[in-house]
Design goal:
The chain is 46% helix and 19% strand. The protein is an alpha/beta fold. The chain has a single domain, classed as Bacterial extracellular solute-binding protein, family 7 (D-Maltodextrin-Binding Protein, domain 2), CATH 3.40.190.170. The longest helix is centred in the last third of the chain and has 35 residues.
Length: 328
């Protein structure tokens, strides 16, 4: 009996001491709410990864900029302070000015052109993903956010003349150049700080995506949407490269597949997402203004300096990228 007791104790000790496979946890910083379409897209990715890995990989989403603001994500992920993050593509313009090809005024003015530009390995996306890789982060997928609109109070923004002397919220350098070329005064403000900026009158006019109007309830502080569609808004999901390289190949395969599925689902659903956002904005009293063709020509007419700056800053690489975009 004593021998059996000792054997049982030894067996229990061996069980306790046996190594347990460590679960891999990947934290993601997100500036929008989990209810936004970016948040729901991450939730889709989270579910697929955790199910496909049978719990070997755990995804934790920190939404509403609780850990890092949009402009802090590139450095945080690149340095490994957090494993993953979602950031506006414009946040990488300081690392590569080629990023701002996506924000050249009216360059990608159809869904077909956008899809060709954002396709993995395209002559537009390829150099951008490669440039971001130099920051210590690996791009997993691009998240569609829709087209840029103007927000205002008391009436629409019909022509560049309506921007003259006005403070305008923008979310990137090239968008600021576009506003300045039209006579406005651009101010870069993070998406999570938009509401207060409009409420306090920090800026007179806003530039954002219509889905952002919905997720942030911006109808409470602005009353008119002007459908400018001057730029395509893209977010990207990145992972620290050292973390990525440290994963097992099977884990990377699961993440790659889930990322590809998340990108496709969001891109395919963007038209419905924007339509629903417009409908909800109208239901909350917002007016939606569609500029006339003459008014759109006036907007295009002030865009030339923005293109000139892109060519000058990016040299031959920028010219090649614009030529590729024009050929789509």
């Amino acid at each position: 009996m004593k021998f059996r007791s000792l054997a049982l104790i030894a067996a229990m000790a061996a069980f306790v001491a046996a190594p347990v496979a460590a679960q891999t946890t990947l934290r993601i910083s997100l500036q929008t709410s989990l209810k936004s379409h970016l948040g729901q897209n991450l939730a889709m990715f989270q579910k697929e990864v955790e199910e496909a890995s049978a719990g070997d990989i755990k995804i934790e989403i920190y939404d509403s900029a609780t850990l890092y603001k949009d402009n802090e994500v590139p450095a945080a992920v690149g340095a490994g302070s957090i494993e993953m993050g979602v950031a506006s593509l414009t946040r990488y313009v300081g690392d590569s000015a080629l990023v701002d090809v996506m924000y050249q005024p009216f360059l990608f003015d159809t869904e077909a052109k956008v899809r060709k530009a954002v396709a993995a390995g395209s002559p537009v996306r390829g150099p951008i993903d490669a440039a971001i890789a130099e920051t210590g982060s690996t791009v997993l997928w691009w998240q569609a956010y829709g087209s840029s609109v103007f927000l205002s109070k008391g009436g629409p923004i019909k022509t560049p003349a309506d921007l003259v002397g006005k403070k305008v919220r923008v979310f990137g350098k090239t968008l600021g150049e576009f506003v300045a070329a039209a006579g406005g005064s651009p101010t870069v403000i993070s998406g999570s700080e938009q509401y207060l900026a409009y409420q306090r009158g920090t800026v007179d006019i806003g530039m954002t995506g219509v889905s952002g109007v919905q997720s942030r309830k911006l109808w409470e502080v602005m009353d008119t949407i002007t459908v400018a569609n001057n730029a395509v808004i893209e977010f990207i999901v990145v992972i620290n490269t050292n973390v990525w390289n440290g994963l097992k190949e099977g884990q990377r395969a699961i993440i790659r597949t889930a990322a590809s599925n998340a990108e496709t689902a969001l891109r395919d659903g963007m038209a419905k997402i924007e339509a629903a956002a417009y409908a909800e904005a109208v239901s909350h009293g917002m007016a939606v203004y569609q500029p006339t063709e003459d008014e759109m020509n006036a907007w295009r007419g002030v865009s030339n300096p923005v293109y000139a700056t892109f060519r000058r800053v990016n040299g031959d690489a920028g010219v090649r990228m614009l030529e590729a975009a024009a050929a789509f």
